[in-house]
Amino acid sequence: MSIRVAKTGNEAVAEGMRQINPDVVAAYPITPQTEIVQIFSSFVANGKVDTEFVTVESEHSAMSATVGASSAGARAMTATSANGLALMWEIVYIAASMRLPIVMPVVNRALSGPINIHCDHSDTMGARDAGWVQIFSENAQEAYDNLLQAVRIAEDKNVLLPVMVTMDGFIISHAMEVMHLLEDEKVRKWVGEYVPENPLLDVDNPVTVGPLDLYDWNMEHKRQQAEAMIQAKPVILEVAKDYAKLSGREYGLFEEYMLDDAEIAIVVLGSTAGTAKEVVKALRADGVKAGLLKVRVFRPFPAREIAAALGGKKAIAVMDRSDSFNAVSGPVFAEVRSAMYGVENAPKIVDYIYGIGGRDVTMDHIKSVYDDLAKIVKTGQVERALTYLGIRE
Amino acid sequence: MSVPKDAGWKDVPKAGRILEPGCAAKYETGGWRTYRPVHVPENCINCLLCWVYCPDMSIQVENGRFKGIDYRYCKGCGVCAQVCPGKRGNKALMMLLDEEAQGAEGDTK
Ligand code: SF4
Ligand code: SF4
Known about the structure:
Radius of gyration of chain B: 17 Å
Number of helices of chain B: 3
CATH topology of the largest domain in chain A: Rossmann fold
Number of strands of chain A: 16
Oligomer: heterodimer
Bound molecules: iron/sulfur cluster
CATH architecture of the largest domain in chain A: 3-Layer(aba) Sandwich
Order of helices and strands of chain A: EHEHEHEEHEHEHEEHHEEHEEHEHEHE
Number of domains of chain A: 2
Helix content of chain A: 40-55%
Distance between the termini of chain B: 25 Å
Largest sheet of chain A: 6 strands, mixed
CATH superfamily of the largest domain in chain A: Thiamin diphosphate (ThDP)-binding fold, Pyr/PP domains
Largest sheet of chain B: 2 strands, antiparallel
Strand content of chain B: 15-25%
CATH architecture of the domain at 30-101 in chain B: 2-Layer Sandwich
CATH class of the largest domain in chain A: Alpha Beta
Order of helices and strands of chain B: EHEEHEH
Strand order of the largest sheet of chain A: 10-12-11-14-15-16
Radius of gyration of chain A: 21 Å
Number of helices of chain A: 12
Largest interface: A-B, 22 and 13 residues
Structural class of chain B: alpha+beta
Strand order of the largest sheet of chain B: 1-4
């Protein structure tokens, strides 16, 4: 039976890491790091895990050491947030292109400046083209569940890509909620033993990793990387199915909430989905056909599946918790609208940039979005394609 | 591992990994050379500093004595000629323009 506990998101993820018992965790244990590695380091100190904990001098080094450990053949993890992720940048790309199945929880927080430490998605969204699988979580339970699944996804022979598991800074990472942990033994068995593909420490089969790769073959290796991301989609679904057997909790590429017969819907990632579901419930009680699509997997982006789920709706609002500063839209909108191109009877689609720098997003805000959608359906007119939700004009 | 000429992206090892050890021997880098070291035996004291310093393995040694230069890999960096003490101020390695030095003494390949 699973264990009912009250945990913050940070604690839940640290517990998950303890149960995974990775060979190596490298981390820079000071802000912009999170409590995750701090809690995990106490597990190391108390002998609860066998992990080699490498304290490094920066996040750039944290990812570098993780890449080194993973290349050697270790199951290697780290965790980060915001500017820490930004400092890792160079090596974040290298981890993916070296096809290392590193799992990294990322606590979503704003990239400074002006200096801000609160929740938005600008850190992870900035890394969306780095070649990592990206999985978003609505609450601590999902962050924990996604973390365990991430190990199996990353290490699948058809994938071999690093995976970021995200949770909203403070809203999930620091808020305590009731959730269910699985038993240690169950998790260890389910996650299984890691069998690396070409480990450097296999001295009987010496290999060179990360060599110079110029115009003669680099494009082919990038094509392989793209293929791994394509292959990740069915793997994510298979792993989710198997995880449901273990935990009783079901996951897909995205979650549909009262979407089936909805006429208006919003597309949202992370903790705001929880707030929005309450709004949908209230609207439904008033007879409004409102629905919601919560994107769980942002990379690989489930374009075809989302297009199928949203086709036939009348109006859609995409919620972006970061800006692309491209003068058109946020990143999620760009993906969703692109997915809808050419779909018959495509709904009208508008974008809302919200919750930047931890700006609170209330049920009233979300309600106003649905009201806008209802107006678009009624008039057939889109007044504003992009709205900064709750901005002081 | 040599990659067949008609190989595609599905055929090559992931991430550019090289799965065969020591395969640098197959890549003859001597073609990069502009200048080549040429050996002058009468000035050589067989100190083998050239062998120690050569960043490749182009200086060949036999029975503790200078034997020759493997031009298949010599990139003409000139380090050997720089460190060569020679005899009485006369170096035992000279850097000559490659095309002018073909067939000069000490040319083992
Ligand atoms: S020129 Fe450079 S590469 Fe060639 S033998 Fe001398 S040291 Fe070696
Ligand atoms: S460094 Fe000069 S003197 Fe010494 S072995 Fe080489 S060629 Fe001869």
